[in-house]
Amino acid sequence: MTIVSPDQIPGPVVVLCAHPDDIDIHAGGTLARLVQAGTRVHCVLATSGNRGTADPTTTMEAIASIREAEQRAAAAALGVTDLTFLRHDDGDLIYDAKPLREELIRCIRTTRPRTVITHDPFPGNGSQDACSIYPDHLTVGATAFQAAFVCAPGPLFHPEHLTMGLTPHKPEAIYCIMSSQPDTVVDITPVWSQKWAAIEQHRSQGRHLPGMETFFRTIAREAGAIAGLGLAEGFRILLPT
Ligand SMILES: [Zn+2]
Q1: 3 state SS of 135
Q2: DSSP β-ladder status, 173-177 and 232-238
Q3: CA of 119 to the centre of ligand 1 (A)
Q4: pLDDT tens for residues 180-237?
Q5: Dihedral in degrees, nearest 10, Cα atoms 68, 69, 72, 73
Q6: Average model confidence (pLDDT) across the chain
Q7: Would you call 51 helix, strand, or coil by DSSP?
Q8: Which pLDDT tens digit goes with each residue over 3-12?
């Protein structure tokens, strides 16, 4: 297990995730530390989680509006100011993979990240965390991997981007969240209060309820214990060939 400090994560950093709260739960502490270190961080949500409710009387539009407001508040808690919603429908990303790929390529060519944080496209056998094999997460992870390492560097993928002034670009590394085989941890002990402040904004998902802080702190403590740290977030790093 490698311990990485924020100044070893090259910026700019782009975070590509499926739903509101994915970023804050899995990488919020790392983002808070990156922002503190002066690294530019841009977060992109493929959906606004517009089916994330058990209430049959509400609408997808209403849920999206609530969850985008929660995500904006969470980003503010972490100090992240660049936040983009692509507004695909929650649960349907696998059917939107090609347009999503073009959007992610365009994002990478625009923001020119040296590091991408996204879902692990190969999270393991799924036995440890069923959330990691949820189709939206796998779709974003696989599409972000293609966009970053295969397409954004290749001028014949979406050559129309050149006419928009967007030239090819290849990030140096992908940091995967939700991996069952993390190989790297970031110490988030100093910024736990910021991470928790971000997570608890997601009230529509019950993240503010009693017991939640302890639940997420326990996950962070277990991730840290592997590396002799207090509280940590784990990642699996993919490097381009
Ligand atoms: Zn999610």
Answers
A1: helix
A2: antiparallel
A3: 9
A4: 889 999 999 999 999 999 999 999 999 999 999 999 999 999 999 999 999 999 999 9
A5: -140
A6: 96
A7: coil
A8: 999 999 999 9
Give the neighbor-by-neighbor strand order of the sheet with 13-17: 2-3, 184-187, 232-238, 173-177, 115-119, 13-17, 41-47, 82-88
Low-confidence ranges of the chain (pLDDT < 50): none
Nearest to 192 by CA among 173, 211, 218, 168: 218
Q: How far is the CA of 37 from the centre of ligand 1 (A)?
A: 27
The total number of residues written for the chain in this structure: 241
Neighbours of ion ligand 1 (CB under 5 A): 18-19, 22
How far is CA 52 from each of CA 61, 67, 121, 163, 203, rounded to the nearest angstrom? 11, 9, 22, 38, 12
Residue type, 23: I
Expressed in angstroms and rounded, the spacing between residue 241 Cα and the centre of ligand 1 is 28
In the chain the domains, ranked by start, together with CATH numbers, are 2-238 (3.40.50.10320)
Classify residue 56 as exposed, middle or buried by CB count within 10 Å of its CB (0-12, 13-18, 19+). exposed
For residue 234, give every residue at least 6 positions away whose Cβ sits within 8 Å of its Cβ, in sequence order, or none: 179, 182, 184, 185, 223, 226
